[in-house]
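Entry 14: structure prediction run for Putative iron export ATP-binding protein FetA. Input pasted below.
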Amino acid sequence: MIEFKNITLKVHRQTLLDGANLCIAKGEKVVVRGTSGCGKSSLLKCALGALPLAGGSVRLDGLELSAATVAEIRARIAFVGQEPVLGAESVREALQLPFTFKAHRGNAPTDEQILPLLERLHLSAAILEKPCKHISGGEKQRIAIARALLLNKTVFLADEVTSALDPASKAAVMEELFRPEITLLSVSHDPDWIGQCNRVVGIVNHQLTEENA
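Run finished. Output tokens:
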């Protein structure tokens, strides 16, 4: 589903990855870990085309990332970072925002679809009317996840998405993202998260190396 082939990634002239390879099958849950600054978050960003490769290629479901395909690849992937940008005034508007665009117009979710999902993510119905600037970082993470799930995304790139969550909220997020149909590439230092992943990959000497959990 996601393939990094012989990728070389440089940021500010610093080589983070050099001829690295990683292949993730559909439905796999993979976590990347390593020392600060080794390139974990940059790996996720290059999968979105947000960081250019110095060499190699990235493919999503057989489609190679390029200037011509980056929009289509981004439409298939959900990226959730530590501090998601919701891009709207209220939480309700943030959840509805993607459905104002041409690709999803006419498919806007109803409250009957939204409210059960919010409940599963330990969010109250009242949060829909709150301004996005007044909700916490952990709530923003869960709203971003809810928005992606409402779009029926099944490929997730998740960067430390449990960092701002209490144990109950973390368990709720993991229950949603570790469903069998979801392909998950993540960065995390959380032992609970790492323990649930199928594979653990470290960044060592600019390479992506399989590790034991």
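Notes: The radius of gyration is 17 Å. Will compare against the previous run tomorrow.
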